[in-house]
Write a structure and sequence with these properties.
Largest sheet: 5 strands, parallel
Shape: elongated
Number of strands: 14
Structural class: alpha/beta
Strand content: 15-25%
Number of helices: 7
Mean pLDDT: 79
Radius of gyration: 21 Å
Length: about 250
């Protein structure tokens, strides 16, 4: 999907810096490009409350300048910016990846955008902006981008983790883990085939001692999410602890 003047958003391979001007250490990085201060404030508050790191550019020119310097996971771009029409006149942006784009539009743009939707890397929301809709569409765009694991992602068989977004999948199915469940799954995955005691798990997940019952409940919740398919990956070794991997390791 391309709005008038947004052809300049097409990107090619290159190098991007890892800096981000907004606060936060974890979570996907999002660039919001809009001249509307109200929309910028709403989008920033909405996305940051959901764990995203947010940077704001106040116009198309500033957005184009910001893109090559920060590795963004997603871009929210105001399709009604007056200077969008100038993008096609400049050189194409060189990036090492192409982040998905969520366009902000008004209803009179629908007839031009709908025929061009497709590919799973672009979407739109109409004004007035609703926080729940923005979050839902951002999640869908990021899920589509993360649907295929990269070689750098920790993985075991069809299970893989994304260290940037702190999300996990089994095949195409997202696991929807809590922070404690994610920490436990990652610890088990990188120690696949090794028996982990409850004391080891407690120390890694919470950095202190927890009762055996709390650990058993955490493992049970994680197992329900991970082992919906065969083969089961989380196994109990009674009297010893737990082991991650295919049965018989």
């Amino acid at each position: 999907m391309q709005t008038e003047g947004t052809e300049g958003l097409v990107v090619m391979q290159g190098h991007a810096d890892e800096r981000l001007s907004s606060s936060g250490e974890d979570g996907p990085a999002v660039l919001v490009v809009t001249a509307d201060s109200g929309d910028a404030e709403l989008l920033t508050a909405t996305l940051e409350s959901a764990g995203y790191r947010v940077d704001v550019a106040r116009g198309a020119a500033e957005g184009v300048a910001r893109l090559p310097t920060v590795r963004f996971d997603l871009v929210v771009w105001d399709a009604t910016l007056p200077d969008n029409k100038n993008l096609a006149k400049g050189r194409r942006i060189v990036l090492d990846h192409r982040p998905p784009i969520l366009f902000l539009i008004t209803c009179d743009y629908l007839h031009t955008l709908l025929p061009e939707l497709g590919g799973g890397t672009e979407d739109y929301v109409t004004r007035p902006i609703h926080a729940t809709e923005v979050l839902a569409r951002v999640e869908v765009l990021l899920r589509g981008r993360r649907a295929e694991p990269s070689p750098a992602m920790p993985r075991y068989g069809d299970l893989f983790l994304d260290e940037v977004t702190r999300r996990a999948w089994r095949g195409a199915r997202p696991l929807d883990l809590s922070p404690a469940e994610y920490r436990l799954l990652r610890h088990m995955l990188v120690n696949a085939g090794q028996v982990l005691s409850k004391e080891q798990i407690s120390r890694h997940v919470w950095s202190d001692f927890r009762a055996a019952e709390a650990i058993e409940k955490l493992v049970s919740r994680l197992r329900q999410k991970v082992d919906q398919e065969e083969p089961a990956l989380i196994h109990t070794r009674r009297g010893f602890g737990y082991v991650f991997g295919r049965s018989g390791m």
